[in-house]
Write a structure and sequence with these properties.
The chain is α+β, with helices and mostly antiparallel strands and 159 residues long. The protein has helices at residues 5-19, 52-69, 92-97; strands spanning 22-32, 35-44, 77-81, 102-111, 114-124, 128-132, 137-141, 145-150. Helix 2 links the parallel strand 2 (35-44) and strand 3 (77-81). The termini are far apart.
């Protein structure tokens, strides 16, 4: 499977999604039981959350755009979805938006003898984040992050 597809789709889709007042949170391209699936997770930049009408509108426009640019080889299913409450965090600006909230970070290599960190996102710098858990504070560089997600829970439980 071509690893470059999500990056190419992101580059082509981002201007369209942003023109609709939304942002791309994540893109997946993988083989599932029914064949290849290209899944975009989008959210409103104003924090209101996306509606089914928003998703349907972006999906139609994006389908046409991807067909014109022939970005995805062969046949595939396009899905445009909300990122959900445990949304993925990918870019520094995603992390900055959720400082003070609980996150789960999996690293690509062991740090301090482990690869999973669940705690409060304390800080975001140019090249790294700081997560505080019951053990202490941990600085994790962006290139070490394999996957990071927001963990939705009432704010009163965070501190």
């Amino acid at each position: 499977m071509n690893e470059d597809v999500p990056a190419r789709v992101w580059r082509i889709a981002e201007p369209l999604v942003e023109s609709e007042g939304m942002e791309i949170v994540d893109i997946e391209f993988r083989r599932e039981h029914a064949g290849l699936v290209l899944r975009l997770f989008v959210d409103r930049t104003d924090g209101r959350g996306v509606t089914l009408d928003d998703l349907s509108h972006v999906s139609r426009q994006l389908s046409d755009l991807l067909d014109v640019h022939d970005v995805v080889p062969g046949s595939y299913t396009l899905e445009v979805s909300s990122p959900g409450i445990n949304r993925r965090l990918r870019r520094p600006e995603h992390f900055r938006r959720y400082i003070g909230q609980k996150v789960q970070v999996r690293t690509s290599e062991a740090l301090e003898g482990r690869r999973s960190f669940v705690g409060v996102l304390e800080d975001v710098e140019l090249e790294r984040i700081r997560v505080r858990d019951t053990v202490g504070e941990h600085w994790i560089r962006f290139e070490q992050i394999a996957r990071a997600n927001l963990i939705a829970e009432p704010r009163s439980q965070l501190r």
